[in-house]
Amino acid sequence: MPERYLMAASTDSYGDQREWEQSGHINYLCGCFMLLKPSEILFQYYIDVLMGPDAPPNALYPDQDFLSFIYRKDGPMPWSRIPIEWSANDGGMVEVLEGRLKSLHVKSWELAEGGNIADEKTKHVWMALVQEMENYYY
Hints:
- The protein folds into 2 domains: 7-81, no CATH class; 93-137, no CATH class.
- The longest helix is centred in the C-terminal third of the chain and has 18 residues, at 120-137.
- The protein has a 3-stranded mixed β-sheet, with helices on one face.
- It is built from 4 helices and 3 strands.
- The chain is α+β, with helices and mostly antiparallel strands.
């Protein structure tokens, strides 16, 4: 296990994201937006855990669940939580965090499946940003 490490991530949970700020709400490490400092020692620790008898079982989100196991709050290497201003998982947060939101983790394309589906207003904002980027580069 490394003596020093960095693991900070946004939290992920079902329900209105504004509830995530309330004390006592479950903080589940979200692999969608995170900061970590890679190192050979950390990589070897990951391998040792995966090859050891206490390796977490495969799950619905194997990479995220593995990181949640390594950096669990009650373990030797707990993670730190990144505030939702850095990565919101809910299109409704655009208005709530107006002017402070750094990234938005939503799906804005047709036929998107799963959670974090953008509402129509957020889709239009996203498409305008895509168009601005394409105009700049093309």
